[in-house]
Write a structure and sequence with these properties.
The structure is a single chain. The protein is α/β, with parallel strands linked by helices. Among the domains are: 174 residues, Chloramphenicol acetyltransferase-like domain (Chloramphenicol Acetyltransferase), CATH 3.30.559.10; 215 residues, Nonribosomal peptide synthetase, condensation domain (Chloramphenicol Acetyltransferase, 2-Layer Sandwich); 99 residues, GMP Synthetase, Chain A, domain 3 (2-Layer Sandwich); 86 residues, ACP-like (Non-ribosomal Peptide Synthetase Peptidyl Carrier Protein, Chain A). Strands 8-14-13-11-9-10 form a six-stranded mixed β-sheet. A hairpin with a 2-residue loop joins β36 and β37. The longest helix has 25 residues. It starts with 9 loop residues before the first strand and ends in a 5-residue tail after the last helix. GO terms for molecular function: catalytic activity; phosphopantetheine binding. One of its GO terms (cellular component) is cytoplasm. This is Carrier domain-containing protein. Keywords: Phosphopantetheine, Phosphoprotein. Its cofactor is pantetheine 4'-phosphate.
């Protein structure tokens, strides 16, 4: 065989190989750079001839015999001798495919050593007499996907010639190494400068990071997995024909679909996708075995009303522009943009690979299908691959996803959605991007089912008052309500409520009229609530601790027919005396009225009649009155009977403000199920010990608390928790994972129920029950839908998002309120028609997603999105990290704009001892990304609360100068730190670095890391790795790593000396 002899001992790498080399040396996961696949051969094979054919192909292509070594500071090829022997493995005896996949996976995860050569593996596995798997694995630096196709085709060409008794000849003048050498000697400064300007202009403003790691502590051993959607040949060819008819090219079509999906589910307007460039610009190069491929970032941004056809054309033009400027290295762009300083590892978190390769080998007498390998070690969170391998095998749409970003179900939902979007874009290219459905029919059906309660209760409507009256008949002498030393039985409570109801009717109370209740927490307050409902009117609860201005606003807005209050409050709050019913007049004034139940006609508690109006907190403007009907109240009371399992043996604490909808849960939860309602006093709110003592003395079995207040109760060692408890219900704010774990350390078995629900959907819409520490993550879900409730996760266009993707929560079902009192426009904005089936939905404004276990996870308020340097940050995640520090008792993280108008994260913490902000932030920097680290830590004695028990964020103090993190310069200490500081200063062009400085914050990048490692290894005689530099947060930490390596080397040298007889 003749082929051109190589005249040089070393050959330079081309630009693409140099990029791979830089990434490889900077990575601590070397197997990540393996690529490969296997050919599923469906006919018999002459193993010896196949071995000869492979050996000949290696001899013809010296790149396959090369090793990569350093010549000075420059990586080069050197050619090594090859004596190829084909390894054959026979797994045909049982479960051959399973055994073969395990074998190939094990080989694929093994690292190659660049300077040892033979950067490939080829093996033959026998599946049966007529079926074999020929697998190829190599380092990406010597071959790319197109190169593999050329190699396999060359092997089968040689195999056929050998089978026919012919002598294969190689008449090529050039090999890949010649082309790589020519490329390395050609530089065009003008062209490179132009390309640099192009890319820096494109990326002068980086889009938001699209994905963030899950709060999941149970990731599998492999960091990524692959899922496959197989498209039958006829279906795919039909799609291609339709796309061609409408001038939609495959690559820009899929890129547009992926970008549309990610931007829609993230509510962003731009996305960077990495896509491979084959860079084979001549016929000669297209047939070569070697590595030409490079990654090109494509920044895609569309307006939502843009036509699909226009968006695809825009993508096509961007691809052409990028290709014209392909000479500029990606590593140089990373350096220009200072990605590492911004806390970004990559320019793109999504990649798309269009593998359009003809793997039809029938012309060589081989019946085969080709499959590429995934090693389960992907660094990019989401990689989509379209495998179009010719007419002989189905086209595959594959998705590799990282487990720390996506669950398997979420990834499957995304893959399905990509194909749904592609189909929709081909079918209707002249509609807007926003008009496209993100999910197909099958996934939509699954999402609807996930958002429904597992139990549906169909029963005749019975009002809450009737349920209470049934308990009066069943348990007349049982205690209904307790307030300090006073109590009423069910019969006595009912009698007083009936008398007051009749009095109210004489004052004009009736169907859909309002009666305000402005009383302190008392038995009279409970009597009034029942009486108003029995009269046929709806009650308007007013907390007496509200500011006078707010109370007057509510009364003016609602215009109640009657106001129930007391003489003291009348004076204090300056209440209008007209239609005022004072409790002091009850003793004599109610005797004349019957204490028997009112007739149905009198009470008028029809399903669509108004039951109560509760004013929301008004954090975004004036408070709004939410109108809840009897049908919604009745449905809720029936729901909690099932979920709380309330019975006459229970005692339920009445803790919440009457103006908060949890009071509805407490009052009707107890009184409609025969339990005793125990009213708290004011002292227990500010004394944890007194709170638990009160619960124990009153034998409280069920409590429903604002989450923020419960967090304060979880102060370790403050007081013993009441042993009478069986159920704790929480709601109002996100439940902290660390506090939930702490609860079960203290109580072992008392059920914790994390509930979620706006006032507009009647107290709660979903819940998550725990009898032990939450499993599978670092957040507590809000659970699954209540009975007769429908939950949807939708984008801003009210389209379903794929499973696991973030979206806004919409709530439907029996609990959706009538709307806002006197506010028809605002009602229409948030109470909307169900786009999927008949009914109404409430738009919550809360961002959620389905977790891997089908529970909903609360992410944030839609209007509370925190974006720091392009990263979306969830303050709850930062709070959880703060709670891991022993000096912190409780923590909340809140974004606020300070004097420089920059949005910054501020941490507010409580603790028994004074804390130093700089020390706390320094500890956080060890576990949090820089953009997630609070700018300041403010210690407060306690958190301020609203009347409804939620955190009053507007009352949190503005940070002082001493609360901010200031890194002081501390001079390097010792020989190693001084050596490091001098090296950093020389490489970075700065004054002497300090021991607390970070290499990347000072301007370091991946190229400089490689140079730093080479210098330090030469200077210290150790084997420091690039990953050691990346892991070290400070100069001091890197110095410690070097000292440990020096110590290990010293010990190893001493052992070697002893082994060699040095002790004699």
């Amino acid at each position: 065989m003749s082929h051109r002899q190589l005249k040089s001992e070393t050959f330079p790498l081309n630009r693409q190989q140099e990029e791979i080399y830089i990434d490889f040396t900077n990575s601590d996961n070397k197997a990540l750079f393996n690529i490969g696949g296997y050919v599923d051969i469906r006919n018999s094979i002459n193993e010896k001839l196949l071995e000869i054919a492979i050996g000949l192909s290696i001899e013809e292509n010296p790149i396959l015999k090369s090793a990569i070594t350093l010549k000075g500071l420059k990586p080069v090829h050197i050619i090594k001798e090859s004596n190829f022997q084909l390894q054959v493995f026979d797994y045909s005896s049982g479960n051959p495919e399973e055994k073969s996949k395990i074998h190939i996976d094990n080989e694929f995860c093994k690292e190659f050593c660049l300077d040892e050569g033979q950067l490939y593996k080829v093996g033959l596995i026998k599946i049966s007499e007529e079926r074999f798997w020929l697998y190829f694995i190599s380092h990406h630096i010597i071959i790319d996907g197109a190169g593999y196709a050329n190699w396999i085709r060359k092997i089968f060409e040689l195999y056929q010639q050998l089978s026919l008794g012919k002598t294969p000849l190689d008449s090529r003048d050039k090999t890949f190494l010649h082309i790589a050498g020519e490329h390395a000697t050609k530089t065009n400064a003008k062209r490179a400068s132009k390309s640099s300007l192009y890319w820096n202009q494109i990326f002068h403003q980086l889009p938001d990071v699209p994905f963030h790691p899950l709060n999941n502590s149970t990731c599998p051993r492999k960091s990524s997995s692959k899922i496959v959607l197989t498209i039958p040949p006829l279906e795919y060819s039909s799609l291609l024909e339709k796309a061609a008819d409408k001038n939609l090219a495959v690559l820009p079509l899929f890129l547009t679909a992926i970008s549309t999906l990610v931007n829609r589910i993230n509510d962003t307007d731009a996305l960077v996708i990495g896509t491979p460039l084959h860079n084979r610009t001549s016929k000669e190069q297209r047939g070569m075995i070697g590595a030409f491929m490079s990654m090109m970032p494509v920044k895609l941004s569309y307006s939502g009303d843009q036509l699909i056809s226009d968006a695809v054309k825009q993508t096509s033009q961007l691809l052409k522009s990028g290709f014209r400027n392909r000479e500029y290295p990606l590593s140089a762009l990373y350096r220009d943009l200072g990605l590492l300083r911004q806390g970004r590892k990559r320019l793109y978190d999504v990649a798309f690979n269009y593998q359009q390769i003809d793997f039809d080998f029938s012309e060589y007498g081989v019946n085969a299908r080709t499959h590429y390998l995934s090693h389960g070690q992907e660094e990019v969170p989401l990689t989509v691959t379209l495998c179009e391998y010719g007419d002989k095998q189905p086209t595959e749409l594959q998705l590799d996803y990282r487990h720390d970003f996506f669950s398997a179900a979420h990834a499957q939902g995304l893959l399905d959605s990509i194909f749904v979007l592609v189909q929709g874009m081909i079918e209707q290219p002249d509609i807007s991007l926003n008009s496209l459905n993100l999910v197909g029919q099958e996934q939509a059906k699954k999402l609807i089912e996930l958002g429904q309660s597992k139990t549906t209760v169909e029963q005749p409507f019975i009002s809450a008052c009737e349920m209470f009256e049934h308990q009066v008949v069943a348990n007349p002498d049982a205690t209904a309500v307790i307030s300090g030393e006073y109590s009423l039985t069910y019969e006595a409570l009912n009698a007083r409520a009936n008398q007051l109801a009749r009095r109210l009717r004489t004052l004009g109370a009736g169907a859909d009229s309002l009666v305000a209740i402005c009383l302190p927490r008392s038995i009279d307050m409970i009597v009034s609530i029942l009486a108003v409902l029995k009269s046929g009117a709806a009650y308007l609860p007013i907390d007496t601790s509200y500011p006078k201005q707010r109370i007057h606003y509510m009364l003016s807005d609602a215009a109640p027919r009657v106001v129930i209050s007391s003489k003291t409050l009348q004076a204090d709050l300056a209440l209008d005396s007209e239609n005022l019913l004072l409790t002091e007049h009850w003793i004599d004034g109610l005797v004349q009225y019957s204490d028997q139940n009112l007739s149905c006609e009198q009470s008028g508690n029809a399903k669509r009649a108004l039951a109560y109006v509760i004013y929301t907190s008004g954090t975004t403007g004036e408070p709004k009155g939410v109108m809840v009907e009897h049908g919604q109240l009745s449905s809720f009371v029936n729901q909690i009977k099932h979920s709380y399992k309330l019975s006459p043996s229970d005692r339920m604490l009445q803790f919440s403000s009457i103006g908060f909808d949890i009071a509805v849960e407490e009052c009707f939860g107890a009184l409609c199920h025969g339990a005793a309602l125990v009213l708290r006093n004011e002292e227990i709110v500010n004394d944890i010990g007194a709170f638990w003592q009160f619960c124990q003395q009153n034998m409280i079995s069920v409590i429903s608390l604002p989450t923020a207040f419960w967090h304060q109760l979880m102060e370790v060692g403050k007081a013993p928790i009441s042993t009478s408890l069986r159920l704790v219900i929480l709601g109002g704010e996100a439940l902290k994972y660390a506090k939930a774990c702490q609860w079960f350390e203290l109580t072992q078995s008392i059920e914790l129920l994390n509930t979620y629900g706006p006032t507009e959907t009647t107290v709660t819409a979903c819940s998550y029950s725990m009898r032990g520490a939450p499993q599978g993550g670092q957040s507590v879900p809000i659970g699954q839908a209540n009975i007769n409730t429908q939950l949807y996760v939708l984008d801003k266009h009210m389209q379903m998002v794929p499973y696991g993707a973030k979206g806004e929560l919409y709530i439907g079902g029996d609990g959706v309120a009538r709307g806002y009192l006197n506010r028809p426009q605002q009602t229409r904005q948030v109470f909307v028609e169900d786009p999927i089936k008949p009914g109404r939905l409430y738009r919550t404004g809360d961002i959620v997603r389905f977790q891997f276990d089908n529970n909903l996870e609360f992410i944030s308020r839609n209007d509370d999105q925190v974006k720091i340097r392009g990263f979306r940050v969830e303050p709850q995640e930062v709070s959880e990290q703060l709670l891991k520090l022993p000096e912190i008792s409780d923590a909340i993280v809140h974004p606020r704009k300070l004097e420089n108008e920059q949005l910054q994260l501020i941490a507010y913490v409580t603790g028994e001892k004074p804390i130093k902000s700089t020390e706390i932030i320094a500890q956080l920097k060890l576990s949090l990304a820089d953009y997630m680290t609070p700018a300041a830590v403010v210690q407060v004695p306690e958190f301020p609360f609203t009347q409804n028990g939620k955190i009053a964020y507007d009352q949190l103090p503005v940070p002082k100068a001493e609360d901010f993190y200031v890194r002081e310069y501390i001079a390097p200490q010792g020989e190693i730190e001084t050596l490091l500081a001098n090296s950093w200063s020389r490489l970075l062009g700065i004054d002497l670095a300090g021991r607390l400085d970070n290499f990347f914050e000072l301007g370091g990048h991946s190229l400089l890391v490689s140079r730093l490692v080479l210098e330090l290894n030469r200077e210290c005689g150790i084997e420091l790795t690039v990953s050691d530099v990346f892991k070290a947060k400070t100069l001091s930490q890197l110095a410690q790593t070097i000292e440990q390596k020096l110590l290990s080397k010293t010990i190893a040298d001493e052992i070697n000396e002893l082994d060699n007889g040095g002790w004699l």
